[in-house]
Specification:
single chain; alpha+beta; globular; Acid ceramidase; lipid metabolism; signal
Length: about 375
């Protein structure tokens, strides 16, 4: 492959890490007492319910996302936020599309179709779909009540170090993403295959449920051997790894059981390190699959009744970014007997589990096949991350 797409993506990655915006003021770790009575969602942390759309998997990939056309137009604003320099954006539009044909089917054709239908340049749609490999920081919880009923919930946090809005005291990228949050019902033969909370214009999956079989969320895992390296290797022609959000989508679409999903998420080579948080439909079926790009470490429920992650479970979280400790504190205060979507929403509404990066909260009940999502905000005082 020529140097064009390599240069375009490298410049985009560098620009995203050095956006010429003011840095957030340092705020010491801010925690609060575990919240209660937050559900049904209301008040200043609730910015609205998420709209549902349908993607028909029987259609050709290039035609599947046309129902979201109005929302996809906003991707152009996101591309400018990712790469604020007009010159760099021109390079992305000219050179990055050369990378598209190297991406796996059907994702490459879906991205091509989104660009064609919306008028957003192909390079910008592609860039939007790539950045999640290296820029997410989230909290996911799998919990089992005293009757063996499993629930899965998550906060999706995105936009760290990608521009701070001094006036609104928020991350620029997070602000732009909230209006793009969608719930998607993926159907084949007019029947639901899986459901997901995602962003309009994004074809990979970060949060989803295969009804009555399993639930799945993906969190980025920080590592020196991270997503940047995997993406650059892909550009240079080494393509034996899978894009992690494409793998998540493939598992949600094609796996039919918790065990099958666990095997695929554990064994598939990846471009970027990741946490795959998996919940099943039977007692004890919950695990955090902690992945490097090449191998995995499996952390299962065993005798525990709840799992939460945004760090390696065998390490202490960084004190400036510890959402795990307050999340587990609130889970323990809730107790297993009281676990429900309502109480999980309370846990995910407690600062700093809820923070300035939080775009949405999703609650999933695998046995009922239910997924519900809410757009979030974190009023001051609130941790930037």
């Amino acid at each position: 492959m020529g140097s064009g797409p390599r240069r375009a993506l490298l410049l985009a990655l560098v620009a995203a890490c050095s956006v010429g915006c003011a840095r957030p003021q340092f705020v010491p770790p801010y925690t609060e007492e575990c919240r209660s009575g937050m559900y049904p969602p209301k008040g200043p942390t609730f910015k609205g319910a998420v709209t549902w759309y349908t993607v028909n998997l029987d259609l050709p990939p290039a035609k599947r996302w046309t129902d979201l056309l109005g929302m996809i137009q906003v991707v152009r604003d996101l591309a400018n936020a990712f790469v604020p320099s007009g010159k760099l954006l021109d390079i992305v539009d000219r050179d990055l599309p050369l990378l598209l044909d190297t991406l796996p089917f059907p994702f490459n054709e879906e991205i091509r179709g989104i660009s064609a239908a919306s008028g957003v340049p192909l390079g910008e749609v592609l860039l939007f779909n790539i950045f999640y490999e290296v820029f997410t920081a989230c909290t996911s919880v799998v919990a089992e009540d005293s009757n063996g009923h499993l629930f899965h919930a998550r906060n999706l946090d995105f936009g760290l170090f990608m521009g701070w809005d001094v006036r609104n005291k928020s991350w620029l990228m997070t602000e732009k993403l909230r209006p793009l949050v969608v719930n998607v019902d993926f159907q084949r033969n007019n029947k639901t295959v899986f459901k997901s909370t995602s962003f309009a214009g994004y074809v990979g999956m970060l949060t989803g449920i295969h009804p009555h079989a399993f639930t799945l969320t993906m969190n980025e895992r920080f590592s020196l051997d991270g997503g940047y390296i995997g993406i650059m290797e892909w550009i240079l022609g080494k393509r034996d790894g899978m894009w992690m959000s494409f793998l998540t989508r493939s598992v949600l679409e094609n796996a039919t059981s918790y065990e099958e999903a666990k095997q695929k998420l554990s064994q598939t080579k990846l471009l970027a390190p990741a946490y795959f948080i998996l919940g099943g439909n039977q007692t004890g079926q919950g695990c955090v699959i902690t992945r490097s790009r090449f191998c995995c470490s499996l952390h299962c429920f065993e005798s525990r009744w709840s799992l939460t992650t945004n760090y390696d479970h065998w390490k202490e979280p960084l004190f400036l970014d510890d959402r795990r400790t307050p999340a587990m504190k609130c889970m323990n205060q809730t107790t297993r007997a009281n676990i429900s979507p309502k109480t999980l929403y309370d846990v995910l509404s407690t600062k700093p589990v809820l923070n300035k990066l939080t775009t949405y909260t999703t609650l999933m009940d695998v046995s009922e096949g239910r997924l519900e999502s809410y757009i979030r905000d974190c009023p001051d005082p609130c941790m930037p991350w």
